[in-house]
């Protein structure tokens, strides 16, 4: 995916995906001290938002906390479900690019919390007005319906927030991640693999519950207009194979070596369907190989999925920027 090719340059979506490289390279935040002070007091972080503003940014953050045994309790749910929870001892972040997402605003207006912080892409938003502080992304406006560069920056914000709280920063790391992101976004993908995916009636994503496969599942609908589903963990070989068919495909993100043989046995040999992997190493399946970067692999995996889906969308003759029903703001707050 390179912008010197008119096939990609005609779409705002491709431009915004590639703008992610500089969003990462130039990543910075304003003073985080207010939110850090709140989280140091509570030790409890709750991240909410709707759709892409929550799936990858929040789940990836929770995974970082769990893998590193950070002294923080972290949860995420959609804002409506969060209304049913007791949050008065939590530092709560609401992510909404528009700052106008109805569900998040309702939560912030209704629910008591130890601290309420907005993560938006615009200043002077309704969500920011009812928050203790508002952090504004630097990525700029997105014209395409599918959120891309903002999703990466939201995740980087939470990542930096954790690092800053624990005494570190992302500065040098961002240059390396930007370079690897360019490599992933601009790499050419085997046309035979794209043809397999483009012909599939349903695209399943499987992998760790860290937001990558689930976010790619959502992007599949917006970008390729194909049906999709996220199969967490080994869900793909625990019953759903009964209704799978040869004209469907599973894309596994960074498969566990110990599980590859079972996936092959059940899905490839049993169902007769194609299984494709996205990984930094060879697997038993046709593999789209990407670079690795300690602690930042998920960002590269997600961007690899974007690249795949753009190629599939174009192969299917889809207008990447203009879905028929999907909207930029799912449920907009009005006064």
Report what the structure shows.
This protein has 335 residues and is an alpha/beta fold. The protein folds into 2 domains: 6-178, Glucose-6-phosphate isomerase like protein, domain 1 (Rossmann fold, 3-Layer(aba) Sandwich); 180-315, Rossmann fold. The chain contains 13 helices and 10 strands. The protein has helices at 6-9, 12-25, 33-42, 55-67, 79-82, 102-110, 126-129, 149-165, 171-186, 191-199, 212-224, 257-271, 297-315, and strands at residues 44-49, 73-76, 91-95, 115-120, 133-136, 202-207, 227-232, 249-253, 274-279, 287-289. The strands form 2 sheets. The protein has a 5-stranded parallel beta sheet with strand order 2-1-3-4-5, sandwiched between helices. A 5-stranded parallel beta sheet has the order 7-6-8-9-10, with helices on both faces. Helix 11 links the parallel strand 6 (202-207) and strand 7. Helix 2 (12-25) packs antiparallel against helix 9 (171-186) and helix 9 (171-186) runs parallel beside helix 13 (297-315). The protein is globular, with a radius of gyration of 20 Å.
């Amino acid at each position: 995916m390179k912008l010197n090719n008119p096939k990609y340059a005609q779409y705002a979506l491709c431009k915004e995906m590639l703008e992610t490289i500089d969003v990462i390279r130039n990543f910075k935040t304003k003073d985080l001290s207010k939110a850090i002070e709140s989280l140091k007091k509570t030790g409890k972080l709750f991240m909410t938002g709707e759709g892409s503003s929550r799936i990858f940014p929040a789940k990836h953050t929770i995974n970082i906390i769990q893998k590193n045994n950070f002294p923080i309790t972290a949860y995420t749910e959609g804002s409506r479900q969060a209304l049913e929870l007791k949050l008065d001892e939590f530092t709560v972040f609401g992510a909404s690019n528009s700052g106008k997402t109805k569900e998040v605003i309702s939560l912030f207006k209704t629910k008591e919390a130890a601290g309420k912080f907005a993560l938006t892409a615009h200043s002077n938003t309704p969500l920011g007005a009812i928050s203790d502080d508002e952090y504004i992304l630097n990525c700029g406006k997105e014209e395409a319906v599918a959120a891309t560069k903002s999703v990466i920056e939201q995740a980087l914000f939470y990542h930096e927030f954790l690092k800053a709280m624990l005494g570190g920063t992302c500065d040098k790391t961002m240059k390396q991640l930007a370079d690897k992101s360019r490599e992933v976004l601009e790499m050419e993908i085997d046309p035979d693999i794209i043809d397999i995916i483009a012909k599939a009636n349903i695209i399943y994503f499987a992998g760790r519950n860290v937001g990558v496969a689930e976010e790619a599942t959502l992007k599949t609908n917006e970008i390729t207009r194909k049906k999709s589903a996220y199969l967490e963990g080994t869900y793909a070989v625990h019953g759903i194979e009964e209704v799978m068919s040869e004209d469907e495909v599973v894309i596994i993100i960074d498969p566990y070596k110990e599980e590859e043989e079972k996936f092959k046995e059940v899905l490839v040999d049993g169902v007769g369907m194609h299984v494709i992997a996205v990984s930094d190493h060879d697997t038993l399946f046709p593999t789209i190989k990407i670079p690795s970067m300690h602690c930042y692999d998920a960002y590269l995996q997600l961007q690899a999925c974007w690249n795949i889906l753009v190629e599939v969308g174009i192969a299917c003759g889809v207008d990447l920027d203009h879905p028929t029903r999907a909207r930029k703001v799912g449920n907009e707050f009005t006064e």
